[in-house]
Amino acid sequence: MLKGKLVRLRAYSKDDLEKVLEYINDSEVKKCLTPGIPFPFRKEDEEKWYQNLNPFSEKSYSFAIETLSDGEYIGGCGINNVYWKNSVATVGIFLGKPFWNKGYGTDAMRVLVNFIFNEMNINKVRLDVYSFNKRAIKSYEKVGFKVEGILREEIFREGKYHDIFVMGILRNEWKKINKA
């Protein structure tokens, strides 16, 4: 388990799946997660995803996020892909709506990024975020991510096109921010 100031990152449990479905199928959460049609997941979809989690993977790692205060499951984060040759990891995160704007997401991302740089020996962490997701962009900037590029009008949501921001942080930038 990886511990931050507010949250702990741990392996998923089958007991988390009910909350995963509740949080991930919330329309406001869903619209920020996938570029495709924001169609709801079924229980069977989540069970299949859970069965396919592989702690020995070389490409992806999923963590459940729980609060330190009471151990409540609040969302998930993970490494979606690792490009070992180039030393780049792509990450993602989601939180249940009741836990937005409380610092949990920023803390979880800090813990994840620290793990990637200090345990996996990766040089760069990157992510994509939709331009309308101002809350997430602000959180990522607090962690130290910078906008590296803009994919213009790349996603269609709620009747109009939006940009996708490609954000990244380098290991040397992380070390400067966290040298205390």
Automatic annotation (TrEMBL):
* Range of residues in the leader sequence: none
Residue stretches making up the N-acetyltransferase domain: 7-172
Q: Sorted alphabetically, which Pfam families does this protein's record hold? A: Acetyltransf_3
PROSITE patterns linked to this entry = GNAT
Question: In terms of domain of life, where is this protein from?
Answer: Bacteria
Q: What is this protein called?
A: GNAT family N-acetyltransferase
Species, as recorded:
Thermosipho ferrireducens
